[in-house]
Specification:
alpha/beta; 6 helices; 218 residues; disordered N terminus; globular
């Protein structure tokens, strides 16, 4: 998976604040709706893995609100792992672990991170190729424990069509930057989830034209 640090579409939208921490306005805006989604559909306890945790704002928000979930943030970029750990240290939470390296496009990462009650991924699939996206879903399915749930959130096409002019322009910019990436289609995602052995629990419309796919391992 390409390292997106410094690209115009990654955590370049985040700014440094202090103690190695970074702050992304988008992560702050969508944290509450995502937390409400997890409260509604997520497990009450157990290990929870976040793929591509970014700045760490989501991880600490969710860990604070859901104390019986043991949160494991992951991130391939060392600068962002430092930010995650900075946020964790500041909150003093004991149900969130130190951030670890994970390139979710790599094969067989589920062998190291198996037995998860929940896996959460936001705002990544439009930044990777179809091959990488399908591998991420496949490995997430393998890493879930039976009845574990996978939350997949971000911008997607609806039956091949962008839902706003802004989304269409952003998707065009992504494809111009790298023809292999860009928005994935909602029906494609459902097919990939099913192919990985997951069952779709719900498809939820989220703020800012985003979607959340909630799926479960039988």
């Amino acid at each position: 998976m390409q390292n997106w640090t410094g690209s115009p579409f990654s955590e370049a939208f985040a700014r440094s604040i202090s103690d190695g921490r970074m702050h992304a306005p988008s992560a702050e805006r969508n944290a509450e709706p995502l937390l409400a989604l997890i409260r509604l559909y997520g497990p009450k306890k157990g290990p929870a893995l976040e793929i591509a945790s970014g700045t760490g704002q989501h991880a600490v928000k969710f860990a604070e609100a859901l104390p019986d979930l043991i949160w494991q943030p992951t991130e391939p970029d060392s600068k962002l792992r430092a930010s995650i750990d900075g946020w964790t240290l500041k909150t003093g939470l004991n149900n969130i672990r130190s951030a670890v390296f994970l390139d979710a496009s790599s094969p067989d990462w589920s062998e190291v991170h198996g037995g998860q009650s929940m896996i959460f991924l936001s705002n990544l699939l439009h930044l990777v190729s179809e091959k990488d996206a399908r591998n991420i879903i496949h490995e997430a399915a393998r890493a879930l424990a039976p009845s574990g749930r996978f939350f997949l959130y971000g911008p997607f096409l609806r039956d091949g069509v962008a839902t706003s002019e802004g989304d269409a322009a952003f998707n065009a910019g992504l494809r111009k930057f790298n023809a292999a990436i860009g928005y994935k289609d909602d029906f494609e995602i459902i097919g990939w989830l099913h192919a990985a052995g997951l069952e779709l629990v719900d498809l939820v419309e989220m703020p800012a034209n985003n979607l959340a796919f909630v799926s479960e391992k039988p």
